[in-house]
C-alpha cells in the first residue's frame, strides 16, 4: 500500500521520483505562486512540476528556496521537473533552453526534464539534446510529455524516456498507452488529474467519496496512485494543498477502482497530441 506522501517510484535508471507532487500551470509570477510552492513543501510535498512556457520558473525557484529553508530540508530531498517548450526543439536551442530554465529556477540541476509536446519533425532532434544533457550528468532523469505510443516508437532512442507525462483522469484513462509504458519501463505521470476542476461534482465519484468520507479530489488522486500513476494536482490554496495530499490513510477497493476505470469516455480537456498546431 502506498501510505506516505513522500513515497517514490523508481524510474528505469534507478532515480527515485515522488508519486505525488504539486503542479503550477496557470499560476503567474507573484506571491500566490511562491507561497503555494513554499506551503506545499511545508506540508510534505517533495515534487514540483513547472515548465518554461508557464512563465513562472523564477517564482517557483523562489518558492522552492523559501520552502526548503522553512522545512529544513536540502535540495536533494526535492524533485523538480521542468519542460522544454516547442519553440526550442532544435539541438542547440534545447541545450540553451535547459540552461535558461536552471537559471530562472536558480538551481544547478533538474530532477526531470521533459519534451513538452511531440512536435512533428522536431522532437527527435530535441531528444538527442536531452540525452546529451543526461549523459553529461546535468539532469537526473529525462522524459517526454503528451507522447502517444507511436511518438515514443519514433524516438528510436539510445536512452528510453524515463517518464511520459500525459493528460490522465477518470474521463481519459489511457489504458493502451499506460500498458505500453509499463511494458517499456516508462513511468506514466498524470497532468490535469482533476480534469482541471471539471470532475469535482461527478455523481459516481461523489457516491464513492461519501462512502470513504473523502472528497472527490482525494478519491481521484488515490485512484491515480493505486493505478501506479504519478500525480501532480495543482492548487494555490493551502486548504486544498493539504486536502489533496491527505490520501495516504485509505485504500480504494478493487471494485471501486474498476468503477472509476469504467467512467472513461476518452474525453480530453487539453489538446490532442496527434492534432495540435502550436
Ligand atoms: P488539475 O486537474 O490539477 O486541476 C487544477 C484545478 O482544480 C485548479 O482550478 C484548482 O483550483 C482546482 N483544485 C485543485 N484541488 C482542488 C480541490 N481539492 N477541490 C476543488 N478544486 C481543486 O489541472 P492542471 O491542469 O493544473 O494539472 C496539474 C498539473 O499538471 C499542472 O499544474 C501542470 O504542472 C501539469 N500540466 C502539464 C501539462 C503538459 O502538457 N505536460 C498540461 C497541463 C498541466 P485552485 O488552485 O483554485 O485550488
End-to-end Cα distance: 40 Å
Shape designation: globular
CATH class category name: Alpha Beta
Low-confidence stretches: none
Bound molecules: NADPH dihydro-nicotinamide-adenine-dinucleotide phosphate
The portion of residues forming beta strands comes to: 15-25%
Mean pLDDT, to the nearest integer, reads 97
State the strand order across the main sheet: 3-4-5-6-7-8-9-10
Number of separate structural domains = 1
Architecture blueprint of SSEs:
Blueprint: E1 8-10, E2 16-18, E3 22-23, H1 31-42, E4 47-49, H2 57-71, E5 79-84, H3 91-105, E6 110-115, H4 123-135, E7 139-145, H5 149-155, E8 163-167, H6 175-184, E9 187-191, H7 203-212, H8 216-226, E10 230-231, H9 238-245, H10 254-261
Parallel strand pairs: 3-4, 4-5, 5-6, 6-7, 7-8, 8-9, 9-10
Antiparallel strand pairs: 1-2
Residues 23-25, 49, 116, 145-146, 165, 191-197, 200, 215, 217, 232-237, 240, 243-244, 270 line the site of NADPH dihydro-nicotinamide-adenine-dinucleotide phosphate.
Description:
The termini are far apart. This protein has 10 helices and 10 strands. Helix 1 packs parallel to helix 2, helix 2 (57-71) crosses helix 3 (91-105) and helix 3 (91-105) crosses helix 4. The chain has 278 residues and is of the alpha/beta class. Helix 4 (123-135) links the parallel strand 6 (110-115) and strand 7. The strands form 2 sheets. It has an 8-stranded parallel sheet with strand order 3-4-5-6-7-8-9-10. A two-stranded antiparallel ribbon has the order 1-2. Bound molecules: NADPH dihydro-nicotinamide-adenine-dinucleotide phosphate (NDP). NADPH dihydro-nicotinamide-adenine-dinucleotide phosphate binds at residues 23-25, 49, 116, 145-146, 165, 191-197, 200, 215, 217, 232-237, 240, 243-244, 270.
